[in-house]
Amino acid sequence: MPLFTRVSPSIIAVDYKNPDILNKALEDIEEGGANFVHLDVMDGKFVKNKTFDHEFVDYVKNHTTLLLDVHLMVENPEKVVDDYIEAGADVLHFHYEATKNPEALLKHIKSKNVLAGLAISPSTPAFKIKDLLNRNLVDVVLVMGVEPGASGQTFIPGSAEKVAEVRELDKSVYIEIDGGVNLKNSKVLRKLGANILVSGSCVFESRNVSKTIRALKGRDWRIHMHSL
Ligand code: DX5
Ligand code: ZN
Predict the structure, then answer these.
(1) Parent domain of 62
(2) 150 part of a folded domain
(3) 73 within 8 A of 38, measured Cβ to Cβ
């Protein structure tokens, strides 16, 4: 299992349309020790809300040195993935529920040297992606902790069990947990096998962004180091 916990703050938790607020948020999380910036693309079809497209991702790429963690919540993601690869996505997730051929799409993303992320909504059980995991087609599994569509929702408890189930299926894949992550549930999520924590409201509503990011990362890695 990858040793360190990464934190990926979700920018939709701030007023990202205001360039001053966006730039300040990017600066805060970069200085605060985040590993990625999480970019939630919503098309108004796969989910009700609409956010931004690849042009915004391109803007962010030019305003931060953080890795871009792009989460597509769109119908027919195969039609748009190349736009996001070109915009500079480092990790590119699409939803298992949004496409007929996840295998082809994972292969395509990997062939472009971008980490391929497979997102699963609360209604999709872990066993559905077993075959894709066994064939090493997935770099990151994104387990939704809430229904996709908005920041600031409450964590669905069954999502923690799903993290454990995915970890049971694959010991080395990155597991990203997205939605409703906070300082209370982060410890158990890390313990169950999540190693990328997305956080929107918990990071951006906190008074001290860097302290919050550090707390989300935890100190588990020290334990691992001692056992090496
Ligand atoms: C939900 C998004 C999440 C969300 C996280 O559809 O995928 O990334 O913005 O926000 P919080 O941490 O506030 O739940
Ligand atoms: Zn997300």
Answers:
(1) 6-220
(2) yes
(3) no
